[in-house]
Amino acid sequence: MANVRGSFCLLDVFPCVRARAYEVGVLRILSFVCFTLPAVIIAALFVRSGKRKCGSRCRHLWVARRGGIDGKVLQQRYPASVQHVNHVSVDPLRMKLKYLDLFLRWDCGSDLLQMGLFPNAKEVTESMACVTAIDKILALRFSDAATLCIVVGDGSLPRTAALIAMKTKWRRVLSIDPDLAGLPVASCQGVPRVAAKNKVWANNHSQRLEHHAAFDARRAKMHSRLVRIGEIRRLELVPRLVQDVVVDLEDGSESQVVLVLPHAHVVPEVALSRLRLGGQLLSQGNLPTVSVIQLPCCTFVRCNRIWGQAPDAEYTDECICSDDRMTPRTVRVWKNVTPAGIACKWRDRGAFNNSE
Question: What are phi and psi of 40, to 5 degrees?
């Protein structure tokens, strides 16, 4: 209190000092009200607006990654900051590595990798998705020898068919694809290559030849590894179009037929029409159960029914490591299309053809 009293006394003794102090205080108050306070308010508004825009952008980016907002719409809203969205938000679901871990734990996984059949995680997980659908959805026994598996559209290497053949004890596993021609396996030697139906290559002969030359060079480089494909038991390679193949079921030794279409560019009914049932089987009614597993791609995504029958299961497999719009992670499973095929026999002469 002594100091306070002294200060008041000092102001009373020196009026000029008191006037000066009052003037300085008023100026400071005016300066704060006129300059500092508006500046603080404007800065706070800018910061709040920036946080709001940033938060909205982050929320939209998160929703886009989950598949809720189209990348083009987001690009129009935030053109400068979301240029990468079209690459990040292609897949609405998070990828899981379950199939890769399982494949590497299997004894046949290392053998297939040494053969050079699987170049990347995408191919591994797609083949594993087919095997998982057979095991979990169809619930078929891998030890049942009275099972025939037909893999159509496996590509230039019989990846899915080789995995099924090594994982199961089924009597026959067929891999049908014209791109198998030229493999260092007896059944694929001396078979002419089928002309590609790619629209670009159809009009550009030189580009098609360059592609085939590069393709043959890669195969020659891996010749010593690809030769081991012939060592896989119960695996049969058919390097032709499925339309030119007939699978005979007349002996009745197969009680179960599994058709696998891993991103095959073929309508399921066309592939099923190449099954030939004998007249004795039809008369006795001892028909096999025909199941279908389809991983649709490209324009064949719309082929979601087989002779009018909807799939028994259709789901998006999160364990398929693919971010390509043309090869979605959809898996469709039909448990038994035999009744639908027999019912459509008179309308479609190709369905379970028994006259060829």
Answer: -65, -40
293 forms bridges with which residues in the sheet?
260, 333
Residue length, the chain? 356
Which of 199, 202, 239 shows the shortest CA–CA distance to 219? 239
User: What are the two backbone dihedrals, phi and then psi, of residue 100, each rounded to the nearest 5 degrees?
Assistant: -65, -45
pLDDT tens for each residue of 101-152: 999 999 999 999 999 999 899 999 999 999 999 999 999 999 999 999 999 9
Amino acid at residue number 190:
G
- Residue 138 tokens read as 């169809």
Closest CA to 353 of 277, 268, 259: 277
Closest CA to 257 of 228, 229, 287: 287
Does the reported pTM lie above 0.85? Answer: no
Instruction: Return the exposure string of 242-271: e unless at least 16 CB atoms fall within 10 Å of the residue's CB, then b.
Output: beeeebebeeeebebbbbbbbbbebebbeb
Task: Using CB atoms within 10 Å of the CB of residue 177, give its burial: 0 to 12 exposed, 13 to 18 middle, 19+ buried.
Answer: buried
